[in-house]
Amino acid sequence: MPDLVAPVAPHYVPAPRTQENLDYAELPIIDLAKATTPEERLALSVQVRDAMSNQGFFYVINHGYTPEQTKRVFDIADVPFTQVREAEKRSFVAKMEEEGSFQGYKLRQYWVISFDGGVRDQIEHYNVNKDITKREHPEALRAFFPEISAFARHNHENILHALLRLLALGLELPEDTLVKHHGFDAVGESYVRFMKYYPRSQEDEAKTHRVWLKGHTDFGIMTILYSQPVAALQILTKEGDWKWVKHIENALVINAGDALEFVSGGYYHATIHRVVQPPPDQQGYTRLGVFYFCMADEDMSLAPLLQSPVLQRVGVTKTFESGKIPTMSEWRSARTIAFGRSATKATENGVKEQEIINGVAAKFFD
Ligand SMILES: O=C(O)CCC(=O)C(=O)O
Ligand SMILES: [Fe+2]
């Protein structure tokens, strides 16, 4: 008999929405319910293309999970933090520096937030590869494997693939151009991330100018973030201003990562974003996040898709020297190893750089 009763996860109660009037980013909303026919997809692809080439961020609604299903995922997301003892957590720490992989825990205080002030992060995260069997997990998560696996597949096949079709159309390429490099069953490092931010001391807030996670770009093709009520995420606009990302109930916040910027020759923009202390009415709460970090298959070359008529018209603005183009695997592991661990070099407009591979740098901001 199959087990029809869902295992119990304690209910995670997030902070109430903020009443503060924050300076929010204006981001388009893409309705995935309108991506059924080729005509609808063509129309949506124009919106997605504009969003990815301008803001680098947009919302998605009607992604296929009901508000109840999404709440359940947040309850499961808290399990690796509240139901696993510290000693067991330590035995499941990810091999970030050794293998350039986030699979497992990143415990608090691993990253440096202020090199001068000697302040480290207060963020814990637990990452599960789309293939949950790839490694062992803490005992408390075992009962939730079927739901976590189904969640990974849903993100990959119903959301990532749908958006990759629109992004390929936006480059005037066949719909499957990017999808074929993102197989759910291919060797790849796409993963579900559960992430918990803990309130910090006044001293740490002062020394870091209230920055919880420094401005950065994501490493992969794109990131799917499940909107949650604690305001703290900000994006750096092309004009150089930080704008807050507003919470929309059961929406997704999507952003382009480095790999998408490379394969689109710079046309789709990997926007710098950061996490700061929430507004006063949300201080003192933890902040629980749920993500799906989308990577291309490990062997995909991050060369620009020069066959795109769009790129032929607008030109390539970002790429590696020829002969030195890394694969997804090489870029991802080099960035994972360097992230938050070595100092960055100042360039213009407050943006800092850290050389990653073959002379190409990652962008950062305090
Ligand atoms: O917590 C958030 O809202 C964003 C986190 C983030 O940018 C990341 O984990 O790469
Ligand atoms: Fe990020």
Succession of helices and strands: EHEHHHEEEEHEHEEEEEHEEHHEEE
Structural class: alpha+beta
Write down the domain tally. Answer: 1
Number-wise, the strands total 17
CATH class: Mainly Beta
Counting H and I runs of at least 4 residues, what is the number of helices? 9
Q: Any idea what the CATH superfamily is called? A: B-lactam Antibiotic, Isopenicillin N Synthase, Chain
Biggest pleated sheet:
8 strands, mixed
Strand content: 15-25%
Named once each, the bound ligands are: 2-oxoglutaric acid, fe (ii) ion
> How far from one another are the termini?
54 Å
In CATH, the topology is named Jelly Rolls
InterPro entries: DIOX_N, IPNS-like_FE2OG_OXY, IPNS-like_sf, Iron_ascorbate_oxido_reductase, Oxoglu/Fe-dep_dioxygenase_dom
Protein name: Fe2OG dioxygenase domain-containing protein
Domain Fe2OG dioxygenase: 188-296
Organism: Cyclocybe aegerita
Structure description:
By secondary structure, the protein is of the alpha+beta class. The protein has a single domain (29-364), classed as Sandwich (Jelly Rolls). It is built from nine helices and 17 strands. The protein has helices at residues 38-53, 67-82, 86-91, 96-99, 145-170, 202-207, 258-263, 309-314, 328-338; strands spanning 29-31, 57-61, 104-106, 112-114, 119-120, 123-129, 191-197, 211-216, 222-226, 233-236, 242-244, 252-256, 273-276, 287-294, 345-346, 352-357, 360-365. The protein has an eight-stranded mixed β-sheet. A seven-stranded antiparallel β-sheet has the order 11-10-13-8-17-16-15. Strand 15 (345-346) and strand 16 form a beta hairpin. The protein starts with 28 loop residues before the first strand and ends with a strand. The structure holds 2-oxoglutaric acid and fe (ii) ion (FE2). This is Fe2OG dioxygenase domain-containing protein. Belongs to the iron/ascorbate-dependent oxidoreductase family. Residues 188-296 form the Fe2OG dioxygenase domain. Pfam families: 2OG-FeII_Oxy (PF03171), DIOX_N (PF14226).
